[in-house]
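== Fold encoding ==
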Amino acid sequence: MDDAVDPSEQVTRYLRNSNHMRIALQRPHYSAFMPRVQDGEISVFRTSAMPEAEIVGLGAQFVGRPDVPLRGHCNLLAEDIFSEGLNVEPAPAPHERHANIVGWATDPKNRIIARKLADKARLVAN
């Protein structure tokens, strides 16, 4: 994988919590895009040109756990993330396609940004 994430790349956020999904609206809940408190990042995978079955398999292998199975995932373009002043940085562990959404401020504005990302994402429920 390239070191730089292209704006046209698809980025996938895997969801283990059903509260992160709005099934009726076919959208993730904004909380799926809130950064982790401990490091201010969001774990994602770069999934451009991958068939849906491979995206599901990647998540099952590297994100899902027996005690907390995946509920689904959501896809959006890297440019949607960049347009909010954030960045997608490759983080090739545990997999070469892994990356993190970074650049969050410690600010209540994060909720607004998370809502915008959720509105742009397409939900795929398991």
About this structure: The radius of gyration is 13 Å. The chain is about 20% helix and 25% strand. The first strand starts at residue 10 and ends at 15.
